[in-house]
Design a protein that fits this description.
two-stranded antiparallel sheet; 23 helices; mainly alpha; 7 strands; single chain; 497 residues
Length: 497
């Protein structure tokens, strides 16, 4: 627990003679408030805490980010205290730190913790996934961050990245290699990331013996604790050496042939290529994280809870596309109150129904076909609405005008057919009796009253006003007029519930 913080200055390496060109040095590092979300970030997600701590030490030593340039209060520089806060964040998975947790682990005040979290967001090292809220009368929701590696870090060290999945977001790109110019700086950052920076001890009192005081000063000058006895959360008891600071020695065959040239910890082929093999729990968490990012009603849900809910399909080798296809086949609720609970119900028995890759592929094709059909339907709706409101002619809304238009079209059709239609209509009118009987009038009034109960006025409005008044009476005609006036208002609806 003893030691002081190392100096924050890291000199940029002098490029060695190589076929690779020297990487350009960035001139500034700052991320605005609007770009501090994961969807708007220009960096890439760190695969593990170790690689993220390399980027943290690079930001601390490069001097590209100056807090006092963008804020008038708070810490003056990205210093050792910020690195200590970052070390606590690197051990969290997922990165959902509470302010009280960081205060207890680092010994800082609430305001200081908030300052250093804001500095790491402005430096591009953290990005919001879920922003915590405080609800009156309820518990506060903890914020969730994504550990990011700024794009300036890749440029400064000549790191090459590749996007293996073209449909995935840009922040999921992986490392494919790096130039020769940044190897020396990368080795220095690897050593810094492997060491643990401790909180400095308070100054010793002048009343203490001189010998003990001198020994305390000498111990505080140590910058790392890679070889001290310390306790770790992942071990039982104490260890005489740190697992992060140990060096992996090559076998004797490599030493005899002279091929071992570097003493830095070696990585597996999967780590060097940007891919990391995941165990069962890792696959569950990976699927849960993708589900919370791609499904709207799972936004904000706890990733460990979703990982437990989707454990069966994750163990069966399902991807996020397979899960979305199954949700389409199973059907989704219109209103979601608790996303994790609904997902647990919908995924019940899914791994037994789609138990083969062929069945899952068929479900995915069906889901994509439904998406394409929905997209075409939306296009047709927009096109019909555009033609309706932007066409050359709009149908009149007045019933009287509509009757006149229909009469005009009827005259045009009669003229085209030589007057035969009008003669047929006149002959039909001549056959009909001039005055209906009382029974027929009663049936017409009953039909009109039933129609008015449903909000329709066809029987009354199709007649001449004077004739309608004589046949249906003043009460029914007045009611029909009220319904017609209400139907033209956007605040009233008849005939539907």
């Amino acid at each position: 627990m003893r030691g002081t913080v190392p100096s924050a200055t890291v000199a940029m390496p002098i490029p060695r003679a190589s076929v690779d060109a020297a990487a350009p040095v960035p001139t500034g590092l700052y991320v605005g408030e609007a770009s501090q979300w994961l969807s708007a970030s220009t960096g890439r997600i760190a695969l593990d805490g170790y690689s993220w701590m390399q980027a943290v030490h690079w930001v601390a030593g490069s001097g590209l980010y100056e807090p006092r340039r963008y804020r008038s209060h708070g810490p003056r520089s990205f210093g050792p205290t910020t690195v200590r806060v970052a070390q606590e964040l690197a051990q969290l998975s997922p990165c959902r730190p509470g302010i009280s947790y960081l205060m207890r682990r680092t010994g800082l005040s609430e305001r200081s913790v908030e300052y250093h979290l804001g500095m790491m967001r402005e430096a591009g090292l953290l990005a919001w996934i879920v922003k915590g809220t405080r609800v009156s009368g309820g518990p506060a929701q903890v914020s969730e961050f994504a550990r990011m590696i700024p794009a300036q870090f890749d440029v400064a060290l000549g790191i090459r990245t590749v996007q293996r999945d073209e449909t995935a977001p840009a922040y999921t790109r992986a490392v494919s290699g790096f130039g020769e110019a940044g190897r020396e700086l990368m080795a220095k950052l690897a050593k810094k990331a492997a060491r643990k920076v401790r909180r400095p001890r308070p100054k010793s009192s002048s009343k203490r013996p001189t010998k003990a005081s001198g020994r305390g000063v000498e111990q505080r000058s140590v910058t790392a604790v890679s070889h001290e006895v310390r306790c770790t959360p992942m071990q039982v008891g104490t260890s005489a050496s740190s697992s992060a600071g140990t060096t992996s020695f090559p076998p004797e065959s490599k030493l005899a042939s002279g091929e071992a040239k570097s003493h830095t910890p070696t990585k597996s082929k999967a780590s060097r290529s940007g891919r990391r093999s995941l165990n069962t729990v890792g696959r569950r968490y990976q699927l849960a994280r993708e589900l919370t990012l791609e499904i709207d009603w799972l936004r904000g849900c706890s990733v460990p809870r979703i990982a437990w809910v989707a454990r069966n399909v994750a163990d069966a080798g399902w991807t996020v596309t397979d899960v979305r296809a199954w949700l389409h086949v199973r059907g989704q609720a219109a209103e979601v109150r608790r996303g994790s609970g609904l997902l647990a119900v919908l995924l019940t028995g899914a791994e037994r129904v789609l138990d083969t890759p062929q069945k899952r592929t068929a479900a995915v094709e069906q889901w994509r076909g439904a998406q394409e059909a929905a997209r075409r339907h939306r296009i047709q709706q927009v096109r019909a609405r555009t033609e309706r409101y932007e066409g050359d002619w709009n149908a009149p809304t007045s019933r009287a005008v509509l009757r006149e238009v229909d009469a005009a079209f009827a005259q045009v059709r009669d003229a085209a057919t030589g007057g035969r239609r009008q003669a047929e209509v006149d002959a039909a009118d001549a056959v009909l009796p001039l005055e209906p009987s009382e029974q027929e009038l009663a049936e017409l009034r009953a039909a009109a009253a039933s129609e008015l109960m449903r909000g329709e006025t066809t029987h009354i409005r199709c007649m001449d006003p004077h004739m309608a008044l004589a046949v249906f009476g003043e009460r029914l005609v007045a009611r029909a007029a009220q319904l017609d006036a209400g139907s033209r208002s956007s605040l009233m609806t008849y005939g539907r519930r």
